[in-house]
Amino acid sequence: MAQEWLKKYLRMKPEVTNLYDDLDEYLAFCKKQGYVYDEAHLYNEKTPWGEMQRVKAGKIPKDNWSPYPKEKRDFKPRDRNTNWKYR
User: Fold this and answer.
1) More confident residue, 12 or 69
2) How far apart are CA 43 and CA 27, in angstroms?
3) Contact 29/55 with Cβ under 8 angstroms?
């Protein structure tokens, strides 16, 4: 039988349990949405963790699995024959 102090020492604290739960949730989000998973991004709003928090708040997630980028504006060359200062 383990001693009482050893059971108390080896028990996982709620803060640690929350940390591992957040890591598991973040891993599932990164797999689903196509982000690179890095444990260092946890609790940093400027990383995919922040995107996960925005999705949990009700925002629409970015589509990282689409092979085609979003439509970009067509390039229009500038008309060099006119003087733009006097339009």
Assistant:
1) 12
2) 13
3) yes
